[in-house]
Amino acid sequence: MSNPTPLMRRLSRMISDETAPPLEEMARKSQQLTRRHFGNTMRLFAPLYVSNECVNNCSYCGFSRDAGILRTTLTIDQVVQEAKHLHGLGFRNILLVAGEHPKFVSEGYLQDCLDALKSFIPTLGLEVGPMEDDQYADIVNHGAEGLVVYQESYHRETYEILHTAGPKKKFNWRLDCPERAYMGGFRRIGIGALFGLANWKHEALALAAHLEYLYKHCWKAQFTVAFPRMRPYAGNYQYETDPALFLPDAAFVRLITAFRILFPQVGIVLSTREPAALRDAVSTLGITQMSAGARTEPGGYTGAGHDDVHLTVKGRRVELEQKSGCERATEQFKITDTRSPAEVAAMLKSKKLDPVWKDWEESLLATC
Q1: pLDDT tier at 204 (50, 70, 90 boundaries)?
Q2: Residue 235 binned pLDDT confidence (cut-offs 50, 70, 90)
Q3: Is the pLDDT reported for residue 234 higher than 70?
Q4: Could you tell me if 147 and 190 are in contact, meaning their C-beta atoms sit under 8 angstroms apart?
Q5: What is the SS3 string spanning 115-126?
Q6: How far apart are CA 209 and CA 224, in angstroms?
Q7: Mean pLDDT, to the nearest integer, of 139-153?
Q8: Given pLDDT bands bounded at 50, 70 and 90, which one contains residue 352?
Q9: pLDDT at 95 over 50
Q10: Which residues are CB-contacts of 9 (< 8 A; sequence separation ≥ 6)?
């Protein structure tokens, strides 16, 4: 960056091999700031995958268009079935996740999902393909209050190499997505990079610059940030992880503490991509939100949609030549922390953290 801000210069020093403060010192400060701004709480959420159809070719993603995976899109009733299962486990915060495919996840589908869930799930978020401002406004009107959109890689040349077809090829279109969501009325916006695709220090600095920009220009929103690391996925589609790009555990912890110190009020999200021991260790250092008991395929919680599993070739649905009745849609990536939500909640309590299953109620906005 040709003209870094003071914040960016601080982050650069924090992650430099030569100038970084001791990790223990950063961890203590990060823990203090987290307790000051968030108390002894941890928000719990679950992703609910509604479709693994996609028109994009992304060489690192298990849902990539040309990957020969088993696909399905849940009906609205099946989405409700999955959500009720999660509700029974305690969740009141659900993130609806879908690949980007206008034919299968057509206009109105997500709105119908939201309409069917909002009566018993008070906090609904989306992680789907980017949309226009007016589309976001419509989604918000149907009950969504949060949007997650990861840039994947902030390194433009890497981004262009990895995204070879589909709307996701447009780097700037994706980069501008959080601002469009803000203009559409979303009050919670999550950003992040997928660490392992490009040099991790470059990604960290660019992610911080993006977050700093959003705080200045979208100041009414609440922001979360995440540092997901590459995980194994469907058949290792076309991407071989480069060990030189991998974000080591110590650097991963350093990023968590650095972002907490530089952005004291940002929510920091930790997913089940990470192993249980690491999640336990960092839970008190700066994390404010965790997924638990996650599945990364449509119907992963109840088996919903297994009777409609198929292939998709060049945008066309292709039926399986033979079916055993045991087919399931393919997961996007493999999770590492396989503990149940109750086990994760017990772990948090053992660390004197209060698991928060619900922190929002629409009636709070009701006028007399």
Answers
A1: very high
A2: very low
A3: no
A4: yes
A5: HHHCCCCCEEEE
A6: 14
A7: 97
A8: very high
A9: yes
A10: none
Instruction: Name which of 14-28, 230-244, 273-287, 325-339 the model is least confident about.
Output: 230-244
Contacts of residue 158, defined as CB under 8 A and 6 or more positions apart, other chains included, come to 197, 198
DSSP string, 256-310: HHHHHHHSTT-EEEE-TTS-HHHHHHHTTTT--EEE-S---STTTTT-TTGGG-B
Q: Are strands 289-291 and 41-51 parallel, antiparallel or unpaired?
A: parallel
What residue type is assigned to position 274 of the chain?
Answer: E
Q: What angle is formed at CA 346 by the lines to CA 349 and CA 249, rounded to 5 degrees? A: 85
| Beta strand extents in the chain (DSSP E only) | 41-51, 57-58, 93-98, 123-127, 146-148, 163-165, 188-192, 222-226, 267-270, 289-291, 311-313, 316-318, 354-356
Going along 40-90, which residue ranges are E strands? 41-51, 57-58
Q: How far is CA 52 from CA 83, 132, 168, 336, in A?
A: 17, 22, 15, 20
pLDDT of residue 1: 61
- Sequence letter at residue 346: A
Structure tokens at 148: 């997650």
Q: Are strands 41-51 and 354-356 parallel, antiparallel or unpaired?
A: parallel
With beta carbons less than 8 A apart as the criterion, state whether 149 and 177 touch.
yes
Per-chain mean pLDDT for the chain: 94
Tokens, residue 202: 């470059």
Q: Are 61 and 309 in contact (CB under 8 A)?
A: no
Closest alpha carbon to 45 in 249, 230, 188, 220: 188
CA 255-259-265 angle, 5° bins: 150
Q: Can you say whether residue 228 is alpha, beta or left, with left for phi > 0 and alpha for psi between -120 and 50 degrees? A: beta
